[in-house]
Design goal:
Layout lengths: L11 H19 L16 E5 L7 E9 L2 H9 L11 E6 L7 E8 L8 E11 L5 E7 L10 E2 L2 E10 L4 E11 L6 H4 L5 H18 L2
Parallel strand pairs: 5-7
Antiparallel strand pairs: 1-2, 2-9, 3-4, 4-5, 5-6, 6-8, 8-9
Helix pairs in contact: 2-4
């Protein structure tokens, strides 16, 4: 005879986290100017795909087109000190003093909904053009001795931009991002709103890049 064990119920702490995150996601969406599926400046759709990972925290692939040249796009995603102008809920981002001719290093602080601690991470970024002329930018979090203060460090962050010229002065862009927020946030809670930050970041990025091109 097989005894069926009862399903494990979420703890009160996790239920509270779910309620907090849902309230944050829904209330923020209610005040969002743009829809989640279109670019307000070019009217091109953002295609968003969830990708399961071994960690349990879903990754995302966001593809879109943008009216820009590669250099302007590269300039914006390389300007670490101005990440707060387009990266969703970025409190601060600044270059690190670490020297390397082939890589950039920086620290970012991200606002998380209360009562959770805000997050912090250090990252390294590598940029290059492949043999087909496609611009590639790869960033990953690194283990670095930084002052966390009251911030909770991310366990892991990985991001990759692939930017290719297409017709009519446009770029085709693919953005991959995965993260593990650290702390006590379980993957099933995090996955409830995994799309919100990256999608809103991309919207703000498009607005900023196209604004520079229209000057």
């Amino acid at each position: 005879m097989i005894t069926k064990l009862p399903a494990k119920k979420p703890s009160m702490k996790h239920l509270f986290l779910i309620a907090t995150l849902l309230f944050s996601f829904l209330s923020a969406d209610a005040h969002c100017v743009y829809s989640s599926s279109s670019n307000p400046l070019t009217n091109n759709k953002l295609k968003v795909k969830r990708v399961p990972t071994k960690s349990g925290f879903d990754a995302l692939i966001i593809t879109f087109e943008i009216k820009s040249d590669v250099e302007t796009f590269k300039e914006v995603i390389s300007d670490v000190s101005n990440y707060h102008t387009w990266v969703y809920n970025c409190l601060e981002s600044k270059p690190m003093s670490r020297k390397d001719k082939t890589k950039r290093y920086y620290i970012s602080k991200i606002d998380f909904p209360s009562p959770m601690k805000d997050r912090i991470f250090a990252a390294e970024s590598t940029q290059y053009y492949d043999e087909f002329g496609k611009f590639i930018s790869i960033s990953r979090s690194i283990t670095e001795e930084i002052d966390h203060g009251d911030f909770e460090p991310f366990d892991d962050i990985n991001a990759k931009w692939q930017v290719q010229k297409i017709a009519n002065g446009k770029l085709s862009v693919e953005y991959y991002v995965s993260s593990q927020p650290g702390g006590s946030i379980p993957s099933y809670v995090y996955n409830l709103g995994v799309e919100k930050g990256p999608v809103n970041s991309v919207k703000s990025l498009i607005k900023r890049v196209e604004g520079l091109n229209n000057k």
